């Protein structure tokens, strides 16, 4: 089983595991039917790598927790803190403001001064990488679901339509329009006149 190698969090493979890894790479580069034995070996190796990666993450978490404790006890814990910080940096730890402040507090210690210079360089590189990374436009949460609908504008590669100007409100009807004046009843026709004969 591959195991975490030292404090750097790397993996150390045994001879049998390297044989399986070489066979898996050969199958990936030159696809050919794999035997049942090859498949079982590759699955076992994948499980072992997953276990080793989880163990490495657990060890790194313990290392960073120890680093926090030693930093809180500075300057009395300077020797242990500097050793732990070196191990954490080797394992990929990104030094933060707390690390820089702790190192600055150890003025006069040449080892701390060297680590401070190294951590400042790493912090500047990290900041520069973040600033230079392309920023993706953020879509408001209220629109994200609508833009992701199949067949929507986002799927067609078109920008979402912006709302146009608001239509003016309809005029409010006057009372005369709502309640028109009552019509006078029509006058009944006059009775026909009878003419006297004779």
What does this structure look like?
With 198 residues, this protein is mainly alpha-helical. It has a domain at 3-131. It is built from 7 helices and 2 strands. A two-stranded antiparallel ribbon has the order 1-2. A hairpin with a 4-residue loop joins strand 1 (3-5) and strand 2 (10-12). The longest helix is centred in the N-terminal third of the chain and has 37 residues, at 36-72. The termini are far apart.
What topology emerges from the helices and strands here?
Elements: E1 3-5, E2 10-12, H1 15-29, H2 36-72, H3 78-90, H4 97-104, H5 110-132, H6 141-147, H7 175-178
Helix pairs in contact: 1-2, 2-3, 4-5
Secondary-structure element sequence? EEHHHHHHH
What is the first-to-last residue Cα distance?
Answer: 142 Å
**Biggest sheet: strands side by side, in what order?**
1-2
Structural class: mainly alpha
Overall shape: it is: elongated
Rounded to an integer, what's the Rg over CA atoms? 41 Å
Number of helices: 7
Mean of pLDDT:
77
- According to DSSP, the number of beta strands is 2
Quaternary structure type: single chain
Fraction of helical residues? 40-55%
Spans of at least 5 consecutive residues whose pLDDT stays below 50 are: 142-156
Which band does the percent of strand residues land in?
under 5%
The largest β sheet comes out as: 2 strands, antiparallel
């Amino acid at each position: 089983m591959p195991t975490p190698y030292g404090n750097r969090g790397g993996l150390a493979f045994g001879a049998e595991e390297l044989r399986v890894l070489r066979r898996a790479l050969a199958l990936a580069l030159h696809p050919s039917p794999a035997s049942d034995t090859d498949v079982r070996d590759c699955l076992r190796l994948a499980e072992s790598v997953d276990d080793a990666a989880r163990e490495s993450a657990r060890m790194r978490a313990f290392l960073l927790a120890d680093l926090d404790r030693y930093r809180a006890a500075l300057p009395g814990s300077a020797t242990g803190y500097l050793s732990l910080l070196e191990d954490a940096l080797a394992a990929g730890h990104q030094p933060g403001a707390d690390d820089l402040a702790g190192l600055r507090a150890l003025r006069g210690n040449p080892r701390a001064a060297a680590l401070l210079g190294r951590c400042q360089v790493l912090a500047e590189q990290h900041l520069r990488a973040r600033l230079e990374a392309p920023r993706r436009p953020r879509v408001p949460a209220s629109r994200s679901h609508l833009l992701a609908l199949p067949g929507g504008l986002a799927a067609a590669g078109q920008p979402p339509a912006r709302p146009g100007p608001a239509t003016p409100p309809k005029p409010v009807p006057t009372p005369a329009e709502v309640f028109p004046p009552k019509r006078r009843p029509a006058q009944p026709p006059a009775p026909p006149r009878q003419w006297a004969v004779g």
